[in-house]
Queue: 4 jobs
Job 1
Amino acid sequence: DVADLPSVPDWLPDHLRNEGIESLYPPQAEAVEAGVTRGQNLVASIPTASGKTLIAQLAMLSAIAGGPAEDAAEADKDDERAAGGTALYIVPLRALASEKKAEFEEFEQYGLDVGVSTGNYESEGGWLASKDIVVATSEKVDSLVRNDAPWLEDLSCVVTDEVHLVDDGERGPTLEVTLAKLRRINPDMQTVALSATIGNAAELAEWLDAHLVDSDWRPIELQKGVHYGQALHLEDGSQSELPVRGNEKPTAAIVRDTLEDEGSTLVFVNSRRNAEAAARRLANTVEPFLSGEEREKLQGVASEIRDVSDTETSDDLADAVAGGAAFHHAGLAPEHRELVEDAFRDRLLKVVSATPTLAAGVNTPSRRVVVRDWRRYDGTAGGMQPLSVLEVHQMMGRAGRPGLDPYGEAVLLANSHDELDELFERYVWADPEPVRSKLAAEPALRTHLLATVASGFARSREGLLDFLDRTLYATQTTESGRLEAVVDDVLAYLQVNDFLEREGDELSATSLGHTVSRLYLDPMSAAEIIDGLREWERTAGQQDTQSPHDGREAADADGEPPGFTTASDLVSDDDGGAEEGGEERNVEDDEIPDPTAMGLYHLVSRTPDMYQLYLRSGDQEEYSMVAYEREAEFLGAMPSEYEDNRFDDWLSALKTARLLEDWASEVDEDQITERYGVGPGDIRGKVETAQWLLGAAESLASELDLAATPGVRKARTRVEHGVREELVDLAGIRGVGRKRARRLFDAGIETRADLRDADKSVVLAALRGREKTAETVLENAGHRDPSMEDVEPSDDVSYERR
Ligand code: ADP
């Protein structure tokens, strides 16, 4: 019973009862027995929707209430702090951070303060120090550690959600290393890790010195199965008729069948666009089943959705919602996601089509789950790849609403009898894969070794190996020597690139190395950027001055445009030559032309921190041509066509760079999506990454005193606002944006100052008569209009500081 919980705040039992929680679920009871409310470390590997969140809350609330009351010595120590320190909750996705924050905010009525930390990777988040519970992604926590956030020393409890993601090649190592660092900073801290059911939870527990709760218990029975032909085939061997009519799709048939029984369906698909398309179609299936009252309420939700923002996504979502269906993915505005989740929980929405984000952390149970797509596009692996058993089981776990449904059903869809068998083998009967550390890979170690040395967690090769001994990798590996070998390779790389220095046994980060670590760059990205900028400075500067000292013929002897370099010019270069460029620059800054935006976009697009666009058939030829046409703009030498892989990478980066260039040249979003075969969310993603990388390039250029700094800044602000140079000033005003900036410019309002003094009627006309928009924009520009004297001064600070 919740009244018997040891070491929790007094108010908690009543609070839980108000939430409808009278007694603990069996895995929760096990966790309490294992001491989760008394500061014990715990790994909980239990199915989706079986109450992991409460376990996390019990740990955090008891930790911040002042730690273990039973142990007198411990209690004394804790009393010295004002409260029991801060609890940190690590989420795998930014989209889930606000979700969790909202969940924990219900404790604010008891005087607890909850904060969420996302966004910029360069600050120490000092304001978080006063919070009792902080929610953040592992990348954010990693960057807080790198920036020496002092409040991290007051952590009394850290909870890691979805800890099985340490298996992820890209993000897993960050989580692994970050947990090791937090535990090093706070040896007494309680560590709680929540995992989906996996095969090797005991290994995770061993790694974290934790008790293990490993359970298959579910609050409601789940039947997994496959739909094929006209029937549902379930794992207990039963079959139930589920006919597909005429040209109806199987998903629609399942949704209809569930509706006839007054149930709801959650449909998992493999991309945002598929989620949107499915919702549109399934609304047609749902619509006839809606009652008059439901229709009215759904109209209400639809108009709330439209009020959030005035975009195509918002419109599409509202249209689907009016028909009783919705889509859900990480590209939605948080307000949109919340409206969708609430309406689904209130049983107003009958169908939600979602990408796997929803399976990961959001509590939205439904009678049936359809896993429509069991393959997804994976660029690294090339083509469509099957989802892992673990992922599919997590999606399936959302089936069945406790207290409402007799049981849940979760099905995959088969197109043939063979596929029916395959899906049973592959997913229904299969056990989830064991989780394996991906740390012993060069790209992961490059970043983390530098950061580990830079923030002082290790000061020698031995110290590093000792630190790595606290990772999951060390727990799992039997291959002695492998990690050491990779560490040595990586250390050599970091030294050659001047990020680390070695004196005897002593390892330390150079000033450049510190910067790279704080900027949260992959050192290889930093090296690529630095080389590119130096190369530009050396070759572009040379042409104007024909600097004789390095004996090279300047390209402009042939009358080539400035910045022209040929591949053969540079192939013979060694590192030393490039390095000298920075110090021995014997030309004045102003003689070196700025690199073009295209050149810089290409530079950052070829770093490992940019997820490049893929070349489709026909792209090879097209982008080879573009590459030769624009060769003069590249920072660094283009590889020869005979170096297949390097040349193809160069072209992929070029395709990515051209998307960025289009964006920064005011090409319409619709046109860009068509031209590159991407979604609007992808454009945003590339733009954000480019902005971050160019910001980092700017810091590196100024630290190394390179001439390209102003050019980098221009390229960054252009891509940030999606405009040509002349609009940067206007587009920086809140509420203006790329389209409105162009309209204002065309109406003769060319700068922020122009707008401040502009005639309101001119602005109104330029903004197509939208009164309210015009007023907001004028206000944000600090318009001098006597009729607006009373208006609060607008918050210009964010603009000025950009
Ligand atoms: P998980 O994080 O494991 O996927 P959640 O923690 O979101 O699952 O829990 C799923 C649902 O079960 C939530 O609505 C939660 O309020 C409810 N729940 C959790 N524990 C209990 C309990 N002991 N008794 C009743 N309901 C509970």
Job 2
Amino acid sequence: MYRSVFKPGLFKDQLTIVTGGGSGIGRCTAHELAALGATVALVGRDPDKLARVREEIAAVGGVAQAWPCNIRDEAAVQALVAAIVAEHGRIDGLVNNAGGQFPAPLKDISLKGWEAVLQTNLTGGFLMARECLNQAMQARGGAVVNIVADMWGGMPNMGHSGAARAGMVNFTETAAFEWAQYGVRVNAVAPGYVASSGMDAYPPSMKQTIQAFPQTVPLKRFGTEAEISAAIVFLLSEAAAFITGTTLRVDGGRPNVRPGMPMPALRNPSVPFDGFHLAQTPKVLGGD
Ligand code: ADE
């Protein structure tokens, strides 16, 4: 069972949707929410991945369901949310985590590639949130957490993703204002460099760059999937009842590094939190 720092039963009787729930941070968050009593609706494009995570969660006594869906498809998102509401009568939480991009400098990104990344990382999140609001949360409240990225100051070789994530931060702020009247809180989590299966999408030529990332972080290490999940769970929970419109950075202080300012050596290394006994080390960091 997932070792969460939050109290057992925190999400009892609640239905939470996690997009991109078939792998990485989404999978980890689904495990944590299920361990805390939520029923988790796993959304993603790959039915096999979703089924595997559903089985993993069932094997440790949790409840999850697989809901394959392409979040770029407006009609499919509308039908998905309608089906979840028809079955459960409620949606308490939405974790807008599905994402995807490919490394490329701006000058080489085609219109098709640009639009694909914007659709997945910005438009898809908007569609999921809008439908959850209109079909469920408007009536009884809820919480949305949008997963973005550490894109402050630009995102070299990921300009499409950086633009989409920055857009999602602004969407978070507008939705927080417009939806507060319904008792719906909208926040974002911005992970920094996290040792997650998503890293394996980078080409082998970037291996050395990726392995050097921790040297650019004041806490001098990668984050764990569980450290991102904990922030998401906090923002979904009643502990965050007065928090809306914020973006919580979970990045070991990376954006606080200043050019020319030497980075002090670590005297007391921070201990990574890994409540997720099923975490996979990405191949680029030596996993199999
Ligand atoms: N994960 C990555 N891209 C996705 C998409 N278009 N729909 C659902 N999950 C996704």
Job 3
Amino acid sequence: AFPHLFSPLTVGGVTLKNRVLSSGHDTVLVEDGKVTDDLIAYHEARAEGGVGLIVVQVAGVHETARYTTHVLMATDDSCVEGYRRLAEAAHRHGAKVFGQLFHPGREILESRDGSAPVAWSASATPSERFHVMPRAMTGAEIREVVDGYGEAARRLREAGLDGVEVVASHGYLPAQFLNPQVNVRTDGYGGDADGRLRFLREALASVRAHTGPGFVTGLRISGDELSHDGLTAALVVEAATRLDREGLVDYVSVCAGSSATISGAVHIAPPMTQPAGYTAPLAARVRAAIGVPVMVAGRVNQPQEAEQIIKEGQADACAMTRALICDPAMPGKASEGRTEEIRACIGCNQACIGHFQRGYPISCIQHPETGRERRFTGLPMPTRRRRVLVAGGGPAGLKAAAVAAARGHDVTLHEAGRRVGGQVLLAQLLPGRAEFGGAVTNLEGEARRAGARIVTGSRVDAELLDRAGADALIVATGAVPRRPALELLDDPVVLDAWDVVRGTADVPKGRIVVADWRGDWIGIGVAVQLARQGRKVTLCTTGFGAGEHLQQYVRAAMLAEAARAGVETVPTVRPYGADADTAYFQHTLTEEPVIIEGVAALVLAQGHDPVSELAETARGRVGEVLMAGDCVSPRTVEEAVLEGLTVASSL
Ligand code: SF4
């Protein structure tokens, strides 16, 4: 299957066995700037799954490149050993390995311990997103960093990697030099197109000079930074054309966006609101202008999409990075035509880039084994096959059933509703959230293929427990919407957000106030939904703003939707009552009343209460009772799925 995607590709002097790659992405599986055993296990799982090329995450080429506290560094020879072990692990499975050479310039996050370096850039032009005012580099500093690219490349070659790419994407340092809106230098590194290209040209030449023939040198660049003052597609094509003509690059890897603005940064890991493969036309423009292979990244989730992009000549290889985070075995399954077994990424960003932004190790909400390979791979199998009942077919129950069945147990999952999926079935009905439903399809498929039986319309109770004679019960009975005690006078219309989403609530015309507690999908989602239906909507949040609990890019996309739909927001308020046409709130900072008049209905998104009675009923009836998901404590799908995995792994 997929003959174009699974044909070899020669890049420089190196032949990739197929055209699926894992592009460079931060993992937080780094310690003291070095490769860890966890990072090796993470990449080895993808190599074992059949990926053709692994591009290891960015490595700083100079001390001023430490843009987070968990960035890899290639500034001295002590990095070689870790990279060597990583390369050997990937090579064992036939994958090639490239490294990324990196300097962020002005795109430096504040460090947690106050030790972030002074930001160096082409000019003293501030970054809008991180609020950083950099310092213009001197000629000597430029030479130092240029030399750093070469020295780092030499180390990575010594470690046995097959190549490196210079990261000029997403508005990082080389892009800052290229960009006339950032680079206002008047010396030889600024001015016209040739001057602005000089830094990148010298960095690539330094890599070539320090590594010699046979070692691949690539360029990673945003085909368009899609930002108000970012690099345009025309400037990028021009730069790539010149570098190709000068023989400085063996391939160009095209992505989109810029770290400098939030609207540009969204494209670093585009959320599910972006269409699949939307950056392919940018790659195609570069490919039409140069002679070396072009790779593309940008929500290429499925092998069908990648095959099409390559077949149409838009790119020579596809970065399917989140597809591999979600399912490391995806290339093998695709090449064997087992596409229905692929656990497709849904673009939620929660545990991959979302974890990076919060400073903890990479994972996947659907596949919590990611980033935890050493903890969950090769667990000892149980000595005895047990009869396991799972009560509840939400994400926690489905994952628990899948894992228990894969461990050889006799598993039956009972779901009281007509369909499995729990709250995900509702979440997928919200604007921009349709793909979320894929998580249910994936988890259900995983459970069934592992041999679990799924019975819908069946509630586990005392009688069923006595009849089933199970050895173990996993309670995953979920949660119900929480209704805080509010002072209600004169019969106000008060509705639950989930009933509104479900379409079972009778929402009046007129002004609707949504009272959101958690700052996740429900409050902002229901507000956008109602506003799109033509209602005047006010979204009141307990926290500092709407969607506070969402991953930054997903939040940005949702806030943009809310702005377009005309949703008005009122932050830092908690609801305390309502009457026929007024909603009463209290400011969480001043404790003053906040009164909203002319209200037709108050919609509550105030979190959930766990449903856990079954655990009590089961004690004494079943040998072992375990609990997973919202019935323990209501929280995210990610936490529920991890708990399902953890609980079932103990059986
Ligand atoms: Fe995809 Fe979400 Fe998993 Fe990230 S966490 S890999 S976006 S499914």
Job 4
Amino acid sequence: MSNVINVAEIFGENVFNDAVMQERLPKKTYKELKKTIEEGKELQAATADVIAHEMKEWAIEKGATHYSHWFQPLTGATAEKHDSFISAPKADGKVLMEFSGKELIKGEPDASSFPSGGLRSTFEARGYTAWDCTSPAFVKKDSEGTGAILYIPTAFCSYKGEALDQKTPLLRSMEAIDKQSIRLLRLFGNTTSQKVTPSVGVEQEYFLVDREKYLKRKDLVFTGRTLFGANPPKGQELDDHYFGAIRERIAAFMKDVNEELWKMGVSAKTQHNEVAPGQHELAPIYVQCNVAVDHNQLVMETLKQVAYRHNLHCLLHEKPFQGVNGSGKHNNWSLVTDDGINILDPGKTPHENIQFLLVLTCILKAVDRHAELLRESAADVGNDHRLGANEAPPAIISAYLGEQLEDVLAQLISTGEAAHSLKGGKLHTGVSTLPDFSKDATDRNRTSPFAFTGNKFEFRMVGSRDSVAAPNVVLNSIVAEAFSDACDYLEQAEDFDLAVHDLIKCYASEHQRIVFNGNGYSEDWVVEAERRGLPNIKTMVESIEYLTTDDTVNMFEKFEVFNRAELESRAEIKYETYSKAINIESRSMIDIASKHIIPAVIKYVTSLANSINQVKQACAGASVEVQEELLLQASSLLSDTKKALKRLEEVTEQVTGKEEGKEQAYFFMEQVVPAMEALRKPVDNLEMIVDKSMWPMPSYGDLLFEV
Ligand code: ADP
Ligand code: MG
């Protein structure tokens, strides 16, 4: 019965987790490490040596020969360099397997090949990786199970300690929100909780296509999305795929994905088909923020690797197919104390409700104040095809609270107190007594970019391929700022009850405009949002500047998450990333159109012309009307294609004259992208009329329905 998976047995079997540490480390060492993990105490060199040794022994038992400081540079992917455990050969020619505390704690990859956005000049190319002991190390085996590597999650910084990665600011932002949340809890009489950590659960969407067909689509191979492609006769209009039965081939794939993830301690929980044909979703159970970010990277890598084994290809791009639903990620976020209290839980007593209402209104204030920044955190080249494109959350940030909570806020604003709650919730009066609202009193809203769902906020703008680090850095930091402001005020208050009540009322009124419970996909909302003065930033390029506004810089600097130089470097990298991606897309289009599509269409029109001549020769009276009409149509589209191709070639050439960075990115967005769209149009029309056997690549129908 080799097919039966004993989940409980395999879960975490390749993770150097707490249980393993407790079992293998000397008591004293374990205690010291726990102190570091829980309280951030610095680790002694001697302790690190003991841990490294045990970690190595354990990893070797799992078959590992190498270790890797695993980090997340600003390339969007993870990076790893493998070092074997072997020492220099001794006099007798034998080697030892060694791993020191120093090697565990600090690595020095050649940083010069990773983007630094000008932070690091070439003469100081040093970069360091530093062990994040709060995210457990694990062993990853390759698909055949022959080789294995010990992965050590690390942060990546420059020689001067500037963040060059996703994890460093994330860890800093977690410290900020911890500190400010504890301050807030103390004001409400909580003296027991010692730490507050953001909990994050990431729902990941993806497409699966057949690998053979994928390889025939050079656009998918080069750019991750189709640059051409007419819509199939059947799309997602029947909604027969969503939550539909999972086909055997896909089910076998999912089983392997789960198994791999479970072994690495990723608690893959939910899997189902998504809206579009060929689209699926995977969600793990939420964990602390930095671990969730690491795990999401593992999820994406595992989906890709396992797909390969199944002769499938996993597309993580936000919009692999035009006209078909795109893919995103839902970042579920809440704040949980070390003694298990979720402070985003409305709670059962009025006292808890007040604390909750303050937390809630602080979050609204944070999101309203920094809406542009939050929007930017989900900006990604592929996400431009999705956000606001009438299928995904709009590009406008708003928060959904549900009728019941919105009603509570409305009462607070109009009368200064909430006397009742909708749908028969308990009734309380007076300043320190606010209504006890039950969860799920209202329906779900799936069109909101930032929705309160019972005891967490769900940020739905993130792109499927993007790291969730940036959105969490922003959420943690902006909420820390709002908590800090509230605490500054409340700590000075003479009458706490009165002050907190006033503050909730004030925040609720001042930031009410960010609350929207209606249909986020509707045109009316765009108009209404504009009336409310909410920003509507439609593209990645336009959002980047919000990384470096004074408001953003002050907020991040105050909580020591980023300094100005780090933010400027990130903006620089984003402009570059955008330009590079569009440049690749445009060159791929030029290549495919000139070498594959135009020659195929020429063959087709020639075959039509031959057919006309031959038919006429064979029988003078026979009608060649159809062939002639097709010939005219195809020739005219062919000429449109050639013109559009020429235009795209020209604008792509002009890029070289533009200054790198912002100017170039704007040029790509304003000139190259429209030229690409213009080339796509006649080609997609040609695909509708050209003989299928002559079309140089698999169609949308082939890709989406034949998996
Ligand atoms: P949906 O209703 O959006 O389909 P679920 O309720 O199944 O989602 O949860 C989606 C994700 O949210 C999962 O990864 C889940 O673990 C996570 N999640 C649930 N509760 C919390 C919480 N309190 N904080 C953060 N994430 C959470
Ligand atoms: Mg969801």
